[in-house]
Specification:
- This protein has a single domain, classed as Beta Barrel (Lipocalin).
- The protein has 148 residues and is of the alpha+beta class.
- An 8-stranded antiparallel β-barrel has the order 1-2-3-6-7-8-9-10. Strands 4-5 form a two-stranded antiparallel ribbon.
- The protein is built from 1 helix and 10 strands, in the order H-E-E-E-E-E-E-E-E-E-E.
Length: 148
Amino acid sequence: MLKRFSIFVVMTLVLSAFFRLSAFAQKDKIEGLWYNEEKTAKVEIFKATDGKFWGKIVWLKEPNRNGAPKVDEKNPKASLRKRPIMGLQLLRHFSVSDGDTYEDGDIYDPKNGKTYSCKITYRGDKLDVRGYVGISLIGRTTVWERTQ
């Protein structure tokens, strides 16, 4: 009886380790933490339940203004101007276009309250994040750097 129990425990541990490694191996290359270009914020990019890639602010160099958490004061919708910047969804709805390009998403800029179409290009420990209106030729690219 003890021998069967020991075999069961070992098999459970082996299978558990295998599934953890499998889940880790399936993580997409853009998932993780990224500094914005100015290194004033960290954005966590993750694959959502809809299968698309999203990103939210998880760290701010200066999280407070006048002793209170920074809020989305430039948002064009008055009802959203009191939501905190920390935890704010910046990136939404990105799909893999080819191996290193993610498209069909948008990026929200809390500095001006505007949302832009966006394309992300993976370059190892850097991301080219291009926000644009209309076509991607008319836009601006910032470079984000992977962090911990």
